[in-house]
From TrEMBL:
GO biological-process terms attached to the record: regulation of DNA-templated transcription
Protein known as: Bacterial transcriptional activator domain-containing protein
Entry keyword annotation includes Transcription regulation: yes
Domain of life where this protein originates: Bacteria
PANTHER family with a match to the protein in the record: TRANSCRIPTIONAL REGULATOR REDD, TRANSCRIPTIONAL REGULATOR REDD-RELATED
Region (Disordered): 141-183
Keywords per UniProt: Transcription, Transcription regulation
Lineage: Bacteria, Bacillati, Actinomycetota, Actinomycetes, Pseudonocardiales
Transmembrane annotation, as ranges: none
Domain Bacterial transcriptional activator: 1-133
Amino acid sequence: FAQLVGRAEGCDEEQRLALLDEALGLWRGEPLVDLDGVEVDGYRAELSRLQLAVEVQARQIDVRNGRSRKALPRLERAFREQPGDTTITGLYLCALHATGQRGYLASAYDQHEESLGGDYVDGRLKSLYTSIRRGASDLSPHAEFFLGGPPAPESRSPGEDAGEHLDPAPESAPESAPEAAPGHRWNAQNVNYIHSQLTTGTVVFGTNLGG
């Protein structure tokens, strides 16, 4: 899994997406399910965050390039798992808007706000949501953070699968790990760090880890 994600760095978008999706295809259920203990729990949580970060990176590429309909089911699942994640929520809103499913926008935004438990909604997400509600013809100024970059030129207009976007990663990196870039954008350095911690330590991977 980590090797494929590491190889994806530096590739062009389509090659990168293919490698990320190949890595995600190796994932089988909860990692290290046959082991327990505080240290194992920490590894398991970190692997799950890494898997979610890779999922978001892959779906950002899809939405940036006008493939929101393909990305939407997996974004829905990610949003259900992490409704309080700003990046995931923004990317999900972009995909809903791009596929014309605007009836779900308000409920998704409200769910995100409720999940914060009184904390303020990130200003970038507020701006994106306001632009969508106002029917802006071009969301790219507000969507780029969530898409992980600017949308492809042919994906800038709203409507059926006209891409709007986002950028993601785990809720928090391990204390000694390299810092993730703003927006939780994980790169090969972060992935390789986690991979080295998992493969050089005393913990053995469970058989259902997937890679």
